[in-house]
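To the structural biology subgroup,

Please find below the input and predicted structure for UPF0149 family protein, which we are adding to the shared reference set this quarter. The sequence is reproduced verbatim from the submission form. If anyone notices a discrepancy with their own records, reply to this email rather than editing the shared folder directly, so we keep one authoritative version.
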Amino acid sequence: MDIEMTSEKTLPDLPDFDAIADLMISEGALTLSPAELHGLMVGQLSAGARFDTDTLLRVLSELMNINQLVEEEGKLLFVSLYTITLAHLLDEDLGFQLLLPDDEQDISQRVDALSSWCSGFLAGFGMYLGELPMSEALKEGLQDFSEIAQVSTDPDELHDEDESGLLELQEYVRMAALYIFAECNPDVDPDPADKRKQLH
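Predicted structure (tokenized):
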């Protein structure tokens, strides 16, 4: 029997972008967007950082430039964002997703959010990278993130036909983040297909 067919798992969805945004506003975190916060989180995880709950809440408070998180519901939502994000990154079926505004939002807002996500990733990655050697492909991915992070948008210059280009760029960022995570976390199998072959 094919073991691959015997276990189906459902990967949980990320918390809602607007719910995270509302929570950050209610906590007084006005210096970061939800996209940038998620990018920071993914960057830290990609560089090898892992946090227990108390440390996570302290780190997030520092990142959001607030003294401490006060709402219990908010704490649970942030912990959920962290644990689901890590599960996404570890998923052999590449189910990782970026926390970005939904497709119904204005394209200029979505471009800005992707730029902020990349900026956050670079900051989070740099915090915990240490002396880890980097391949040329990893350096190239980080350079691409740096270029995307510097994109500024003029709503009048973006049109509906730019939609497909944005979706392609989002997919590139998603896959590049997964590649960086896999390279910097060598205990994670970078080629799940090979692993599945061994199970048959």
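Summary notes: Confidence is low (pLDDT under 50) at residues 1-7, 190-200. The CA atoms of residues 57 and 75 lie 7 Å apart.

Regards,
Lab coordination
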